[in-house]
Amino acid sequence: MKMKRVVNGCAMDVEWREDSGSQQFVVQREGASAAPPLQSADVQEVEPGIYSVLVEGRSYDVRVEHAHYGDFVQVGPWRVRLEAPVRRGGSAAAAATGPAKVLSKMPGRVVKMLVSEGDAVTEGQGLLVLEAMKMQNELTAPRAGTVRGLAVQEGDVVAAGAMLCRVE
Amino acid sequence: MKMKRVVNGCAMDVEWREDSGSQQFVVQREGASAAPPLQSADVQEVEPGIYSVLVEGRSYDVRVEHAHYGDFVQVGPWRVRLEAPVRRGGSAAAAATGPAKVLSKMPGRVVKMLVSEGDAVTEGQGLLVLEAMKMQNELTAPRAGTVRGLAVQEGDVVAAGAMLCRVE
Amino acid sequence: MFTKVLVANRGEIAVRVMRALKEFGIASVAVYSDVDRGALHVRMADEAVAIGPADSRESYLNIPRVVDAALRTGAQAVHPGYGFLSENAAFAQACVDAGLVFIGPSPDSIRSMGSKTAARAIARDAGVPTVPGAAGAVTSLEEALAVAAAVGYPVLLKAAAGGGGKGMRLVESPAEMEAALRDAAGEAERAFHDGRVYIEKAVLRPRHIEIQVLGDQYGNLIHLGERECSLQRRHQKVIEECPSPLMREYPELRQQMGEAALRAARAAGYYNAGTVEFLVDEQRNFYFLEMNTRLQVEHPVTEWVTGLDLVHEQLRIASGERLTLRQEDVRWHGASLECRIYAEDPENHFFPSPGRITRLERPAGPGVRVDSGVYLGWTIPMEYDPLIAKLSVHAATRELAIARMRSALEEYSVDGVKTTIGFFHHILQDEEFVAGRLHTGFLADYFARRELPPTPREIEDVAALVGAMEASRGGPASGASAPTQVRSLWKERGRLRSFR
Amino acid sequence: MFTKVLVANRGEIAVRVMRALKEFGIASVAVYSDVDRGALHVRMADEAVAIGPADSRESYLNIPRVVDAALRTGAQAVHPGYGFLSENAAFAQACVDAGLVFIGPSPDSIRSMGSKTAARAIARDAGVPTVPGAAGAVTSLEEALAVAAAVGYPVLLKAAAGGGGKGMRLVESPAEMEAALRDAAGEAERAFHDGRVYIEKAVLRPRHIEIQVLGDQYGNLIHLGERECSLQRRHQKVIEECPSPLMREYPELRQQMGEAALRAARAAGYYNAGTVEFLVDEQRNFYFLEMNTRLQVEHPVTEWVTGLDLVHEQLRIASGERLTLRQEDVRWHGASLECRIYAEDPENHFFPSPGRITRLERPAGPGVRVDSGVYLGWTIPMEYDPLIAKLSVHAATRELAIARMRSALEEYSVDGVKTTIGFFHHILQDEEFVAGRLHTGFLADYFARRELPPTPREIEDVAALVGAMEASRGGPASGASAPTQVRSLWKERGRLRSFR
Q1: D35-44, D167-176, D181-190, D195-204, range with greatest mean pLDDT
Q2: Do D287 and D417 reside in the same domain of the chain?
Q3: Is D294 an active-site residue?
Q4: Do C458 and A55 touch (CB under 8 A)?
Q5: Is residue D116, in this structure, part of any structural domain at all?
Q6: Is residue D379 domain-shared with residue D460, that is, in the same domain?
Q7: Is D376 in CB contact (< 8 Å) with chain A?
Q8: Distance (Å, rounded) from C-alpha A34 to C-alpha A40?
Q9: Which of A26, B92, D424, D490 is the most exposed place for a label (fewest CB within 10 A)?
Q10: Cα separation of C90 and C114, whole Å?
């Protein structure tokens, strides 16, 4: 099997084959010129999403977390961010220039609106204040533009990742 | 809803109705003449198979276990055996007189056969020796009769609940 | 001893108190708000009473409802935990008036120590050093400027009624005073319904060290030594320890500060468990800061090193027993640390991260203690404090305690919410921390200077392999690119091997 | 200190040793058999080496494979845990010969204490009382009958080479001797490949009390007090505690037995951690039983009361450090109990119950320690010891420790295998146990006399309700009878209410 993964922001090609129970695998970092070593791994899923991995005798306890704030692989004390590869020319590039979505980073209650639909805002200007767990957080405009599609009002409870408005 | 349950060997009729979030319920023991009290319960499944139950203000942490050795309800420190009601004239009655199955009570390895197919045995006579976790256990004939359908031999590994033979 | 006690709290502290009640054979009554119906403290209690909606002003802070719950269930006493109503003199008084024992000090002690200005006056009169500053709350900008000029800048503005960093502002020059005063008063008003603010000289790079005291209702008072709580973010403690690294160098300080704490507590007529907080400057001068008239979050580190159970002691004292322990019986063994595991994102200004716990594994083994208020599958509500659990350890030395804590943090995993677990793991490897050079600005410095070690290549390789294997099976993190897009690495390496 | 250590064991003790290694910054190497590939000790290790099939004779008991694993991974030392090769002098010798440090006593000490007859002779020569009996193994029925007649019936037959109750038989009259001798020798042969058996006078209703000793390689030896291990089934300990309830009444006994243990250990040239086991009769005479030349399963209770970490001490001693602790530094605080949580059915002669753990919740909080070798989802193999975990507690008094243990047992839940959790919960409510009237026949008496309290009606009601609700949703325990079969209880009670 072959697969591209983005690990801690670095694209990697992973190739592995089953070899009588254990896996032979190679990981090539994008842009790296040196040939990566062929390694032998024994990967056991001991619980759903939890793996015991032996690589050349070294033992790693690996735990995959899929959460609303992203996908992570915890390898012992190391926390590694995992992403699927972004298609070239896809939304990542568009996001920098197109309308910016303002998403809630956490579940919370909207305790104060600082702008109204159609307001012009500068980058970094406060849009609204969310409160969760006795802490208030001001969400700011990711770019200059006009507030559109304002989806919340004071007192609303929003989920993590909820769209609050766009700045166009 | 109404349902029959056998709790610690005692058949009980349970009836309950949803009443704005909490349950009104009645439990009648089979053969009891006194009218059972109507009680109010708030039953919340906090995790699959784990319930927080409030009955008239008293809090019970309830945990249902379904295992190969039976169904149990753990209520705080109390462990209660739970069975579905046996149909009248069903297999329970038949078991006392018909062929008796000899089942393995635990996973283990057959370390010694004490009888052969077709042997006549008396009640309590040793049939075979199972070993698990460094402990040997002799399985005995539940009744007098003839050994039939012997399904294992020395060295076999058997699962809990596996049919080992019948005594007819 | 009591036969039934209501615990007027939630989360880990309610669970911790209920464990002690059970050990004493005392029935426990939980109170809960609508979002806490399935909370661990409700599940652990013998009885539970609903007291209102999620908003704590309508439930956990609602005095009549809590008192009513105690009376209706026949509880003889109320344990307030920490936070919520624990330092509310009106609540303590309401309990007493209703014939309930308040498991804590007298309403009078709470009242006198609850006002920071009054507490400072009590301490000063008892001969306990305090930070130079105004005797009472300032009433005008002019007065504030005059006091600041007299004690010298920088100065701190503090809420007279509160704690936890709310209403606190550092003022470095007269020009900043007006805005700071307005902000501090506003925040204090919102947090404590009391906008009064007082001024103190700002102690630079101070340690925050507190003394645990314990007293019975017959005037016997002892101290159980110190806890160093200098590691704070937003004036909230995150790591606490005993002994303080300072006491290792200057052991006489424990006795000096202990005696000062006892003078302050005695002046307030204090009984039950309480904590006297001090600032300690770089010359090891210590200044009375405030008294917390309740059990502290971080009491486990004192329990580890003294071998005492503070909630057991609280129950004995509240039921009228005399202290059997004398000051000379108190001994300190080894070293203990506590990390507060919060549902917060330490990489993003400790942003709260409420949500559902989808996986939970807790550390165990020798010298490891977890005080937790959550369980697998529980949704941490957004309405309350983000404390998930307190992880504390004990070992022979501070070095071993740090090593034990690091191991325990590695064993700890909570999925579904962000936590401070990884943050602590980094902190405990920090040279300054390991050297014990602590002060309340430590974390700000740390974030500015820290360089996280790069993830080793072998770790990334393992992560990439597992991530790829999971994605290839259509796991949640798939979005796999088509196999043809990836070049064969075997071919490139010219290592075409035959695989069985 | 070492930089890499191989742990020649599995289960909870391998995990416990690895935790200590990590705290010392030492890399750990696990060994595992085929069925243990996913075991917790493999997951926790830094490196792991497969050493053979499930049958422990081909893996965990295979000396060349274990030594080879240590050499190949570059480990400098081997920790044997308990059981398996831990008391095998040939293994200790093989380690030494391969240039590896064996973390334990010298091969010579193991050898001399490994033979029970030789150990008894050493003890006797050192002035430590032993149970009257034959000086060596008996070689004929005639000799056995003569010895038994000399010391008086009842007598005990014991395997010269082994422990753990294997090859042990009580003989109450000459008529029973022949069969008992044959059985004991056969069992000893199978268990230890050594059929030799010796005879001792049977001490009636004895307590089993052992003394923990600790010595360095320079002749310094101290004892860490006793553990009472009288609660046994099939000669296997199930509950251990410190202090022994006997020592509360007769505190001088600790010193007397401690000194006797040190004499025996000194005579064997003993170093590292070891345990001297005694029988104590009803007149408080104590008799040397045997010496266990390794860490004991129940070492946590000693760690709780002394505040020491025995594995840390083992590592220090093995690496050549001197004991820094003197006898007068050892102090005992509070009381500790340990319950061994086995995958067994206590209601059915402690039948083993291997299987997959489908749900797991472990107790936590102050004074609670869990040493576990399993995890949620792990299938406990049928090939090894059924010990799942050791639950130990510490509190100020034995009464509070018992209460704390009961609470902890209530918090503990393991589904998918039967366990001894509920059994312990009952035992800890037993009057005789609470009174501390312990002896090695306690459990046999207990099973004969105990009357389990009937399940309260309210508990059955709740169980019936939850069971019925679950079944009504088609849960696994359904097999629901048709609704029409059940009479309406509302109608019968004449309480037709209107429900919204």
Answers
A1: D35-44
A2: yes
A3: yes
A4: yes
A5: no
A6: no
A7: yes
A8: 19
A9: B92
A10: 11
Among D158, D180, D201, the domain boundary falls at D201
Say yes or no for a CB contact (<8 Å) between D43 and A46: yes
Tell me whether C478 touches chain A (CB under 8 Å): yes
Tell whether C347 and C440 lie within a shared domain: yes
Q: Which two tokens stand for residue C228?
A: 């160093």
Q: Based on the fold, state whether residues C358 and C273 are members of the same structural domain.
A: yes
- Residue where one domain finishes, among candidates C201, C219, C249: C201
- Please compute the mean of the pLDDT values over residues D470-486 and round it to a whole number: 54
| pLDDT tens digits, one per residue of D316-374 | 999 999 999 999 999 999 999 999 999 999 888 888 888 999 999 999 999 999 999 99
Q: Please tell me if residue C90 touches chain A, with a CB cutoff of 8 Å.
A: no
Domain count, chain C: 4
Query: Domain containing C99 — which CATH number?
Result: 3.40.50.20
Domain annotation covers residue D312:
yes
Whether residues C365 and D16 touch (CB distance < 8 A) is answered with yes
| Residue C304 lies inside a defined structural domain of this protein | yes
Interface touch A71/C477, C-beta < 8 Å: yes
Together in a domain, D409 and D461: no
Query: Given D30, D38, D48, which is nearest A46 (Cβ)?
Result: D38
Which range marks the domain in which residue C35 is found? 4-103
The pLDDT value given to residue D218: 98
pLDDT at C111: 95
Q: Across residues D216-240, what is the average pLDDT?
A: 95
| Residues D197 and D221 both lie in one domain | no
Note whether residue D371 is domain-resident: yes
Residue D481 has what pLDDT? Answer: 37
Mean of all residue pLDDT scores within chain B = 86
Tens of pLDDT, residues C97-142: 999 999 999 999 999 998 888 899 999 999 999 988 877 889 899 9
Write down how long chain A is. Answer: 168
Q: Do C369 and D370 touch (CB under 8 A)?
A: no
CATH number for the domain including D196? Answer: 3.30.1490.20
Rounded Cα distance between D440 and D388, Å, is 23
Exposure of C269 by Cβ count < 10 A (0-12 exposed, 13-18 middle, 19+ buried)? Answer: middle
Q: Measure the CA–CA gap between B52 and B45, rounded to whole angstroms.
A: 6
Residues C350 and C486 both lie in one domain: no
DSSP C353-421: --EE--EEE---STTEEEEES--TT-EE-TTS--EEEEEEEEESSHHHHHHHHHHHHHH-EEESS--SH
Is D80 within 8 Å of D100 (Cβ atoms)? no
- Whether residue C237 is found in the same domain as residue C196: no
Looking at the partner chain, which of D303, D366, D372 has a beta carbon nearest the beta carbon of C366? D303
The pLDDT, as a whole number, for residue D456 is 96
**H or E segment to which residue A14 belongs:** strand A10-19
Q: Specify the pLDDT at position C164.
A: 64
> Using a CB-CB distance cutoff of 8 angstroms, which residues of chain C are in contact with residue B40?
none
Chain A residues within an 8 Å CB radius of C462? 41, 53, 55, 60, 62, 73, 75
Instruction: Kindly report, residue by residue over B76-125, the tens digit of the pLDDT.
Output: 999 999 987 765 544 444 445 568 888 887 788 898 999 999 999 999 89
User: Is the Cβ pair A47, D30 closer than 8 Å?
Assistant: no
Task: State the average pLDDT for chain D.
Answer: 92
